[in-house]
Structure formats: structure tokens, C-alpha cells
């Protein structure tokens, strides 16, 4: 459970405890060695010859760099490293087809109760919203505002956009060139994934420093309601302009998950019936790892990818 947000005044300095702090890099170019100089004179080879018996082979290029990319958004109280580990079975199956890129959320928070038992030392832990924000409202009336204060909402939205753009820029710097074609999120990250897909549906390209064309979203335990990620007049607001997702979505529900009613509300009221696929598996609030469950999710992703033209039909 996220902690209660303290009053934000003056704004935005009070948001700082939850926001990312810029990382610093220390150059190693000025370091000096503490080892003493050897006193023994090294032997000199009488003839010029290579120390290598053969020419070193070139570094093999990562074959995933040109693959279509899926943006992966972790749940609240975890981080990108933890989510990458939680998705290990999915990554193994999707690896031949997609490059999965994991982003860190912008706000610091406490770890989730199910996170500590395995990933206690894998902090810092992060969330996509400050505590208590973007969580209330009925899914029957479209996306909800992040909060009632437009200035506060805009800072949160800008922070989310900066985090996602940072992950994309970092992957580009590694040499990746594939198009961004989908989003995969778990729990709070699934709520964010659905909200990002809705924003693209209504206002393509908004919020990114590059051309983005998400074709689908994979929502693992994603709960209603979605949130409004724009203050523009063309973005629907809670209670004013009901909106549903018509872009394809894959919903993955654990039948033992305590949040299942809210997950079903996102499916039933947040998405157009003809654009969804539902996968239910015998599990609680976590990412599927058993082969049978993972294969069902992967088959659905590959099917939607082929239908939307991301992958060629076999």
C-alpha cells in the first residue's frame, strides 16, 4: 500500500521526495594507481611479433536491435529491474519476435507487500503516480483526472513522459532501431499502458519526442479506471466524455487475484468488446511464469501482432 501523500505546498518542491533525482557520473580518467613500480626490467622480444596467435573475432551484434519494440511498465512498488525478472518466462518466449524495453517510473515509493519477500534489496522502488493519485473514480465515465489540480496533474504527466522518453533514448543509444509497436504493463503499469494507448487513440503522437505508433497493449492485472494523460481539450475527462479503447488489448487475469473485479471493469467498460482478448489463468496478483499460462499469453500477443501487421502471417 502506497503511503499517503503529504500536502504539496509550495508546488512543485513538495513533489521532489517522490521524483527521480538526476544521476551523477564520476569520471575515472583522473584516477591514479597506488601500486608501486616494478623493479624488475621486463625482457624484450628480439623480433617484432604479435602477442596474439590469431586475430580477435569481432563482437557479435545483438540480433534483437532491429526487432519491433514493446515498452514494458512495471507495477507500483517495484522497478524496471524487478519487472524484467518477473517477466523472465515471457521474455524467453517473445525474444525471437520483439525487443522488450523496461522503463522506470518517476516517483519513489515503498515496496509492495509481495515484493519484499523476493526483491527486498532490489530498490529503490517506484510508482507511476504519487501516492493516492489517479486511483479513484468509476470506470463507467471514462478516464479520470490524475488529481483535481491541473498544475499538479501536468507535473505528474510531464514526469511520466520524461521517464518513458528516457528509457526509449537509452535503448536507442544501445543501437536499437526497431519501431515501438506495443505496450506491456502489470498492475499499476497496466493502468498506465491502457491510459497511454487511449491517449494515442485520441491524440496520436502526444507526449513523445519521436514518432510512436502503438498497435496494441498487453494488460496484466490492469485495473480500472484509466487516467487522463492530457490537459488538452480533445482528451476526454471523467464524467464529461466517456471513452473506450478501440485499439487492440490483451487482458490477462489471475482468477485468484483479489483485484479481479476491477480488472474485469477495465475489460468490460474501458475497452470496445470487439478489440479485446481475455486470458484467465489460475493464479494470484503476479506475472504468469508457468509454461501453460505463458504460452497462452504469447500466442495472444503473436496473434494480435499478425493481425495488426507488426508480424507477417505464417
From TrEMBL:
Biased composition annotated in UniProt, kind: Low complexity: 21-42
Presence of keyword Transit peptide: no
UniProt-recorded Gene Ontology molecular function terms: hydrolase activity
Biased composition (Polar residues): 46-57
Pfam families: FSH1
Keyword flag Isomerase: no
All residue ranges annotated as the Serine hydrolase domain in the record: 68-293
Keywords on record: Hydrolase
Region (Disordered): 16-57
UniProt similarity note: Belongs to the LovG family.
Protein name: Serine hydrolase-domain-containing protein
Taxonomic placement: Eukaryota, Fungi, Dikarya, Ascomycota, Pezizomycotina
Amino acid at each position: 500500500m502506497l503511503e499517503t501523500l503529504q500536502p504539496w505546498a509550495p508546488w512543485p518542491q513538495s513533489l521532489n521526495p517522490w521524483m527521480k533525482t538526476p544521476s551523477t557520473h564520476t569520471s575515472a580518467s583522473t584516477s591514479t594507481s597506488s601500486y608501486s613500480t616494478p623493479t624488475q626490467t621486463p625482457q624484450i622480444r628480439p623480433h617484432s611479433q604479435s602477442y596474439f596467435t590469431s586475430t580477435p573475432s569481432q563482437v557479435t551484434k545483438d540480433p534483437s536491435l532491429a526487432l519491433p519494440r514493446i515498452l514494458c511498465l512495471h507495477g507500483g512498488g517495484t522497478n524496471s529491474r524487478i519487472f524484467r525478472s518477473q517477466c523472465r518466462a515471457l521474455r524467453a518466449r517473445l525474444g525471437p519476435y520483439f525487443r522488450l524495453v523496461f522503463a522506470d517510473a518517476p516517483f519513489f515509493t515503498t515496496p509492495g507487500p509481495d515484493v519484499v519477500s523476493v526483491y527486498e534489496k532490489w530498490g529503490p522502488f517506484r510508482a507511476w503516480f504519487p501516492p493516492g493519485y489517479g486511483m479513484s473514480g468509476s470506470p463507467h465515465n471514462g478516464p479520470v483526472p490524475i488529481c483535481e489540480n491541473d498544475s499538479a496533474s501536468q507535473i505528474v504527466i510531464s514526469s511520466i513522459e520524461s521517464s518513458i522518453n528516457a528509457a526509449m533514448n537509452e535503448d536507442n543509444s544501445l543501437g536499437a532501431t526497431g519501431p515501438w509497436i506495443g505496450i506491456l504493463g502489470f498492475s499499476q503499469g497496466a493502468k498506465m499502458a491502457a491510459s497511454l494507448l487511449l491517449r494515442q487513440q485520441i491524440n496520436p503522437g502526444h507526449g513523445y519526442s519521436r514518432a510512436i505508433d502503438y498497435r496494441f497493449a498487453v494488460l496484466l492485472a490492469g485495473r480500472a479506471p484509466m487516467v487522463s494523460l492530457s490537459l488538452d481539450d480533445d482528451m476526454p475527462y471523467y464524467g464529461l466524455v466517456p471513452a473506450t479503447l478501440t485499439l487492440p488489448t490483451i487482458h490477462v487475469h489471475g482468477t485468484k487475484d483479489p483485484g479481479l473485479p476491477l480488472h474485469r471493469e477495465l475489460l468490460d467498460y474501458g475497452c470496445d468488446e470487439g478489440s479485446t482478448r481475455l486470458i484467465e489463468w489460475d493464479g494470484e496478483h503476479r506475472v504468469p511464469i508457468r509454461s501453460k499460462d505463458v504460452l497462452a499469453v504469447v500466442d495472444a500477443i503473436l496473434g494480435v501482432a499478425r493481425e495488426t501487421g507488426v508480424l507477417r502471417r505464417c
